[in-house]
Design a protein that fits this description.
Radius of gyration: 22 Å
Number of helices: 17
Shape: globular
Bound molecules: NADP nicotinamide-adenine-dinucleotide phosphate
Largest sheet: 10 strands, mixed
Low-confidence stretches: none
Strand order of the largest sheet: 1-2-10-9-8-7-6-3-4-5
């Protein structure tokens, strides 16, 4: 445990130096970790744990692309790749990594598979925090823990393979065995976390739902589109509008912000850009505060959850979603983006 000063606020974090992989393997040596779901998080976490020498099995419904993918990744049908409930029965740690709507649909059967002393593991606070809508209330005789990688499941794997790791939060909802924390930390290290910081199920889901609707995706996509449309309205070409809005951001600036911070970025651009950006940042900030307040309130009240569960629980949700995604894909802006990306020297 290290005390780190985050801009004046001291927080405890656990790094992979303090909680080594050897220690994690020791904590998990008698456990069978059943990863339920082989969508986005499932593969990343299952493969990293397997490579780290943890006893991992995968639970996935068969006759599905995800089953085939798990098989292609070396999980063996009947041995380490099993139907969901069979895997849940065998696991002493049950990692519930179906989609959040899938967790709601399968919970009555999964609940029956949990034995006293098992650990039920989530990568999102969603199912537990919104129990009024999900009806997911674990039995009292199991540990309920969370490790939430702060990034896409794909990065969980690619960062592991390139040796860098990903940051994760962890939380304990229920400690039946007295081992809940060491189990959570061991699993966090085993899935490839570089460091872990503690949270609660509530804070994890409130910040996560806000972040993905906000700056990480919803807000980002919205402001990109707004700027692109304004440039186009005033006669700029698609390539100019796209370069000035997205390409320069992703190929240059955001990489520098990742390395050095926005404070550094302000100090390391032309004085013309600097003056303008310093003047306009507060205007944009103040313009979106009401939207962010509204968003956070809708997250806390569960309105966002209701929308997610309703939309993702219909049998034809994938088709409907695809139509919506196709509109974006076929829009001028993102078609222009495809052309711009193809022109990058490494893609020519
Ligand atoms: N995506 C991320 O990067 C990310 C990041 C942090 C945390 N998380 C959390 O990690 C968990 C897993 O998320 P994910 O994005 O990996 O999920 P996902 O890709 O949407 O998960 C799909 C998995 O759930 C299965 N599934 C869906 N509905 C089902 C049903 N009714 N019955 C049985 N199986 C069903 C799918 O099987 P089929 O393929 O057969 O449909 C597939 O294995 C969630 O709690 C999520 O919030 C995700």
């Amino acid at each position: 445990m290290a005390n780190i000063n985050f801009g004046g606020v001291v927080e405890e974090v656990i790094t992979s130096e303090e909680f080594s992989l050897e220690k994690a393997k020791d904590v998990l040596k008698d456990e069978t970790v059943a990863v339920l779901g082989y969508g986005v998080q499932g593969p990343g976490q299952a493969l990293n744990m397997r490579d780290n020498g943890i006893n991992v099995i995968v639970g996935q419904r068969d006759n599905s692309k995800s089953w085939d993918r798990a098989k292609a990744d070396g999980f063996v049908p009947g041995k380490t790749l099993l139907p969901i409930e069979e895997a849940a029965n065998k696991g002493t740690v049950v990692q519930f990594l179906l989609s959040d709507a899938g967790q709601v649909a399968t919970w009555p059967n999964i609940k029956k598979c949990l034995n006293e002393g098992n650990a039920l593991y989530f990568s999102h606070g969603f199912s537990i925090v919104y129990k009024d809508q999900t009806s997911i209330v674990p039995p009292e005789n199991v540990d309920v823990i969370l490790v939430a990688p702060k990034g896409s499941g794909r990065t969980v794997r690619t960062n592991f393979l390139d040796g860098s790791g990903i940051n994760s939060s962890f939380a304990i909802h229920q400690d039946f065995t007295g081992r809940a924390k060491e189990r959570a930390l061991a699993l966090g290290i085993a899935i490839g976390s570089g460091y872990l910081f503690q949270t609660t199920f509530k804070n994890e889901v409130f910040s996560d739902l806000t972040g993905e609707r906000g700056v990480l995706m919803g807000c980002l996509a919205g402001v990109m589109e707004a700027q692109y449309n304004v440039l186009r309205k005033h006669g700029h070409t698609p390539s100019e509008a796209f370069n000035e809005t997205v390409e320069e951001l992703t190929q240059s600036l955001i990489r520098l912000v990742a390395q050095n911070g926005m404070d550094w970025m302000f100090s390391n651009c032309s004085t013309t850009a600097q003056r303008g950006a310093l003047d306009w940042a507060p205007k944009f900030r103040d313009a979106v505060v009401p939207l962010f307040d509204d968003l956070y309130e809708r997250v806390v009240s569960g309105i966002e959850t209701k929308r997610v569960l309703e939309a993702n629980s219909t049998p034809d949700y994938r088709e409907k979603l695809q139509k919506e995604l196709d509109v974006i894909k076929n829009s001028e802006m993102w078609q222009a983006g495809a052309a711009v990306r193809a022109l990058r020297p490494e893609n020519r």
